[in-house]
Amino acid sequence: MPATQRRGRLPGLNAAALQRMRDDLVFDLEPARRDFGYAPRAFRPVPEELGIGE
What we know:
By secondary structure, this protein is mainly alpha-helical. The protein has one domain (3-50). The chain contains three helices and no strands. It has helices at residues 3-6, 15-22, 30-36.
């Protein structure tokens, strides 16, 4: 049992969730750029989007 569960934090965090976080999810964007014109924008959240703004 993860320490977070013993402390009552993150009750849904089980072994499968931990394994998923360890998986390398990096992939090559080039095929999507070439085939679909995929152009992701930079990740620049503002406090309001994170629920910490006024």
